[in-house]
Amino acid sequence: MRELRVTPIKNGTVIDHIPAGMALKVLKVLGIDEAVTSTVTVAMHVPSKAMGWKDIVKVEDRELSPREVDKIALIAPRASVNVIRNYNVAEKHVVRLPDRAVGILRCGNPNCITNLREPVETDFLVLRGEPPRVACRYCDRIVEDVAAAIV
Amino acid sequence: MASWKGRDILSIRDFSRGDMEVVLKHARKMAPFAEGQKSSQTLEGKILANLFFEPSTRTRLSFESAMIRLGGRVLGFSSVEGTSVQKGETLADTVRMVEGYADAIVLRHPHEGAARLAAEFTERPVINGGDGAGQHPTQTLQDLYTIWDEKGKIEGLSIALVGDLKYGRTAHSLAHALAGFGTSLSFVSPPGLEMPWEIIEEVKKSGTAVSTTHRLEDVVPVADVLYVTRIQRERFPDPQEYERVAGSYRVDLPLLREAKKDLILLHPLPRTTEIDPVVDRTPYAKYFRQAFNAVPVRMALLEMILGVGG
């Protein structure tokens, strides 16, 4: 009997071409934790023609906001985000690495003014590269582990 | 930079070489006024707010002197004691309040990025007077001015930065500023306190010749400028190790025997043991002149951002 490793979903989002090993970080940025109420399928270390190995995350009954897509771009700059409606791919987007990351990261410098009780959003310049890094526009600190800084 | 009026002075990174040269030339014109030989009232009726969230003698007094020399007035505080900051007021609110009382703001703050944040909440120009371990652009302009004023040029000079280059923000900013001027730079530091590689790479990219060494004796015979910074005791877990390292980076008369006749010796001050006080009496010692230069440089910047002189 032929068994599919990952079954198709009716409605929701498929995030494909995630760098191998980053799927759990994608779950983290999407806020998917033990309180999840819809089905989430995670495939890790899947053979890929383009990437060698990749991860895939399928989230049922949820479509991502542009802000969430920006967060994914920071940790998986070559990911594709497919919106599934009634088993069909309704929209297909390749994520785009933003030039700025506003309000989605926390500065790793404890002495940065953005870590105080000031009424501002954090603001980072995105430095291209594999993996991308970001630089705080306030304190100039370069954040290497972007996934860990996502709020 | 098309117009200086209303411009914030937040980071030396915001300055092109052309911008820096404009400041240097304007500062030279200010020197006789800073020395009290001539008097000026160009900033009469203007008010500068000095907001010092942590103590600083040099920066605060030199801004006050610059403003008063130009006929302006100064208000502000030199510590947060007794201010509404102690009641929990945010920096954003403090700045919006002060905006109503002054034409420009100088901010010294213990947290990095504070000046940039302040600038976002006010239309008044903000000058960063040092934010934590971050930027202190007027110090850098004062250092550049001293080199230019003493040597008559910056291009082509051999400049050595000495001391704790890993953590020393004045050395980082000066290296960045010098990168555009066609100098050759030497970085002299104890092992473990070397200039961060990002800064070395950035400076090299500009076409500047860069060398690094742990031995001060290597650079003294060839240097036109020796810029000495403090090696802080707290960087060393072992006090004996600190004594040994600090001792080997001390500028004294025997070391200077090998120096060029017209070498200039700079230090952002305060110093501890890096420069032997007997060196103060030699023609090399320019660090007190450098401290004085804070005034003409800040006079120039105040005139420029307040839209007078220029």
Radius of gyration of chain A: 17 Å
CATH class of the largest domain in chain A: Alpha Beta
Q: How many beta-strand runs of chain B?
A: 9
Estimated structural class of chain B: alpha/beta
Work out the helicity level of chain B.
Answer: 25-40%
Number of domain modules of chain B: 2
The helix content of chain A is 10-25%
CATH homologous superfamily assignment of the largest domain in chain B: Aspartate/ornithine carbamoyltransferase
Would you identify the CATH H-level superfamily of the largest domain in chain A? Aspartate carbamoyltransferase regulatory subunit, N-terminal domain
Q: What CATH architecture of the largest domain in chain B would you give?
A: 3-Layer(aba) Sandwich
Spans where pLDDT lies below 50 across 5 or more residues of chain B: none
How far apart are the termini of chain A? 44 Å
Mean pLDDT across all amino acids of chain A: 91
Number of domains of chain A: 2
- Low-pLDDT parts of chain A are none
Helix-strand pattern of chain B: HEHEHEHEHEHEHEHEHHEHH
Report on this model:
The complex is a heterodimer of chains A (151) and B (310). Chain A has two domains: 12-94, Alpha-Beta Plaits (2-Layer Sandwich), CATH 3.30.70; 100-149, SH3 type barrels (Roll), CATH 2.30.30. Chain A is 14% helix and 35% strand. Chain A has helices spanning 23-29, 66-75, 146-149; strands at residues 12-19, 40-48, 52-60, 80-85, 88-94, 100-102, 123-127, 133-136, 142-143. In chain A, strands 2-3-1-4-5 form a five-stranded antiparallel beta sheet, covered by helices on one side. The longest helix of chain A is centred in the middle third of the chain and has 10 residues, at 66-75. With 310 residues, chain B is of the alpha/beta class. Chain B folds into two domains: 12-135 and 293-305, Rossmann fold (3-Layer(aba) Sandwich), CATH 3.40.50; 138-291, Aspartate/ornithine carbamoyltransferase (Rossmann fold). Chain B contains twelve helices and nine strands. Chain B has a five-stranded parallel beta sheet with strand order 7-6-5-8-9. The two termini of chain B are 13 Å apart. The model of chain B has no long low-confidence stretch (mean pLDDT 94). The A-B interface holds A 109, 111-114, 116-120, 136-142 and B 11, 13, 88, 90-92, 109-114, 116-117, 120, 131-135, 198.
